[in-house]
Write a structure and sequence with these properties.
about 180 residues, alpha+beta, Alpha-Beta Plaits, 2 domains, four-stranded antiparallel β-sheet, 5 helices, about 55% helix, about 15% strand
Length: about 180
């Protein structure tokens, strides 16, 4: 392998690492884990500095360096998101709007182990009265919860909201 190709591979791989760390750091910050985020940030910027310095002073053609740099950035964004979703545990507030005011549906969700709060909503010019079902769901169980709701009401509107923390109440269904 020639020195140009090796330089481009090094730039590509280092960008994957530093951007992945940046994505992970951002998620840690959002979750309030600031000390760990600061440590990850140090590693991220150290890698970034080393690779930018190499990219700007190396002998590789500008286009090849730019492609390796941008490709590493894009791949790092993807990898960082995957790492964050696996390593950062948490909960999601799930709001379900259903046109079916069906006690059997609510019972099925509760029997599956999910703690829910149910609100009756006002009708609109487009539809009659609805239920809003609110649940705090462990992120690892989100797809399962959504599939359960869709199996009970295929037309349900589901909104997931990342939660930073919660206090009190009853949170059920741990993985």
């Amino acid at each position: 392998m020639g020195p140009v190709l090796l330089s481009c591979i090094k730039i590509f791989l280092c960008r994957i690492m530093d951007v992945s760390l940046g994505t992970f750091r951002t998620m840690l910050t959002v979750k309030g884990r600031n000390q760990l985020a600061a440590l990850v940030g140090f590693c991220e910027v150290f890698l970034w500095y080393v690779i930018v310095r190499d990219a700007l002073t190396g002998d590789a053609p500008v286009l090849a360096t730019a492609i390796a740099y941008a490709g590493g950035y894009a791949t790092g964004t993807f990898v960082g998101g995957m790492i964050s979703s696996k390593l950062i545990k948490g909960h999601v507030a799930v709001h379900v709007i259903t046109s079916r005011q069906d006690p059997a549906m609510l019972s099925a969700i509760r029997q599956a182990g999910y703690a829910i709060t149910v609100l009756e909503t006002m009708s609109s010019e487009y539809a009659g009265a609805k239920y809003m079902i609110i649940a705090d769901v462990d992120k690892s169980l989100l797809k399962e919860y959504e599939a359960l709701v869709k199996s009970l009401d295929k037309d349900a509107f589901i909104l997931d909201i990342e939660t930073k923390n919660y206090m009190g109440g009853y949170v059920a269904r741990k993985k």
